[in-house]
Amino acid sequence: MYSLVRKFIFSMQPESAHEFTIKALKMAGKLPFPIFPTPDNPVEVMGLKFKNPIGLAAGADKNGEAIDGFGKLGFGFIEVGTVTPLAQDGNPKPRQFRILEAEGIINRNGFNNLGVDVLVENVKRAKYDGILGINIGKNAVTPIENALDDYQICLRKVYEYADYITVNISSPNTKNLRSLQYGEALDELLSGLKAEQARLSQKFQQYKPLVLKIAPDLTEEEIASVADSLIRHRIDGVIAGNTTLSRETVAGLINAEQVGGLSGKPLNALSTKLIMHLAKELNGALPIIGSGGIHSLVSGQEKIDAGAKLLQVYSGLIYEGPGLIQTLAKHIRLKNQ
């Protein structure tokens, strides 16, 4: 069935197909019944109880427009965003490109979104009863040395409405953003965010986990340094990882030369390697959410076996359809469960 849907969707340009899908899921979200059941494979991570360990990665629903529709596909959790304090158009179009032969996607979107206030209103209207994460970023016009200000603005605005908040410092499509993953810059960012989290926790009398999303292109030494910062600042979780700048797995294929971050099947091995190294450095100090290239039960299980507690998909959903969510949620074998 999905092969026919995919043929129709792939007849459109990638961004047009995405916009069509969001509209369709907004309509589907109003149905009084689920499109697909939510498989029961419960897991508790970061003090939160997930119906199953399979989540929607950020980037699919940047503005939280189709939360209820995505919720009807069987996800155990949904992450919306990345959202910034102010609305921004992102990078010039075209900015999304399929690599069909490899089941990959390159994007250079640049945090295009309608701003945090619009997202919050959409979240408030949603009826989804699963775990909801909100992914926050900085505006392109904000100097990198003032990035903390943008993250704190977003954190304050979304805190009440999220089950957890993800700090995205690993998109390759916002100038200098990835520099926040290193050394003093990372320590200053995490210190400021933890202080804001403490204030908000007291204000709302509820602790909301703070998660960091990192890039898969880090060296082993850089992974060790990031892990040290995560532990020292008592960050609650880490998403490993974002899209990659590497083209090693798609060299010579159509669209492989496009600038941007590569996601989908070609990213699978690299993101699994990141999880493995990160798990070794963290030694159980905080949970890892595995993301990047999951396209089958085998690829998902590899990430769990490498040390992930939860999984996120997006490009795999585009290429494989909702059946991938059902398969993963029903059959993934969790460690220590």
Short summary of the structure?
Keywords: Cell membrane, Flavoprotein, FMN, Membrane, Oxidoreductase, Pyrimidine biosynthesis. This protein has eleven helices and 13 strands. Strand 7, helix 5 and strand 8 form a beta-alpha-beta unit.
Task: List its traits.
337 residues; alpha/beta; eight-stranded parallel beta barrel; three-stranded antiparallel sheet; 11 helices; 13 strands; 17% strand
Explain what the structure shows.
β8 (164-168), α6 (183-204) and β9 (210-214) form a beta-alpha-beta unit. With 337 residues, the protein is α/β, with parallel strands linked by helices. It is 37% helix and 17% strand. It contains 11 helices and 13 strands. The longest helix is centred in the middle third of the chain and has 22 residues, at 183-204. The two termini are 34 Å apart. The strands form 3 sheets. The protein has an 8-stranded parallel barrel with strand order 3-4-7-8-9-10-12-13, surrounded by 5 helices. A 3-stranded antiparallel beta sheet has the order 5-6-11. Strands 1-2 form a two-stranded antiparallel ribbon.
